[in-house]
Amino acid sequence: MAGVAEIDGREEAVRQLETVLATAHEECKILERNGHVAQAQALARLLNDIETATIDYRKWLTEGECALRSGKSEAWFRARFPQWLAQGLAGHDPLKPKVRCYRQIVVPMRANVEAAREEARQAALRVTEKAS
Q1: Angle at which helices 74-86 and 63-70 pack, to 10 degrees?
Q2: Within the chain, which residues score under 50 in pLDDT?
Q3: Backbone dihedral region for residue 71 (phi beyond 0: left; psi -120 to 50: alpha; all else: beta)
Q4: What DSSP element (H or E) covers 61?
Q5: What's the pLDDT score for residue 131?
Q6: Residue 37 CA from chain centroid, whole number
Q7: Are 4 and 11 in contact (CB under 8 A)?
Q8: Measuring CA to CA, which residue among 108, 103, 106 is closest to residue 18?
């Protein structure tokens, strides 16, 4: 879902990040075919860094996957669906229109209580060892 933004005093359509990245990868191939290998490689490195940095935004999860990741119920996600849909953070699976999907970035992660306890225990042991 593309929106509209004001850029330099004029309104322009805002393209989805996935579209921008795909277009830039195509431009990378064109640069390489036209002999601009160094520029193509630099652009490819930059695009890879952007893709890595935005993975939580670009990855879509179904309601079931969201429930597993967060420990929240599917009903909890359904209650937020309309607002997130309007913001471009939720949508329907293009192949299965009845399936709701959410961008990973809005899905809370369930706390790993056991890992936190173990980390605290290790920290306490280090403090105890330093004190003795």
Answers
A1: 120
A2: 1-2, 5
A3: left
A4: strand 60-62
A5: 78
A6: 30
A7: yes
A8: 103
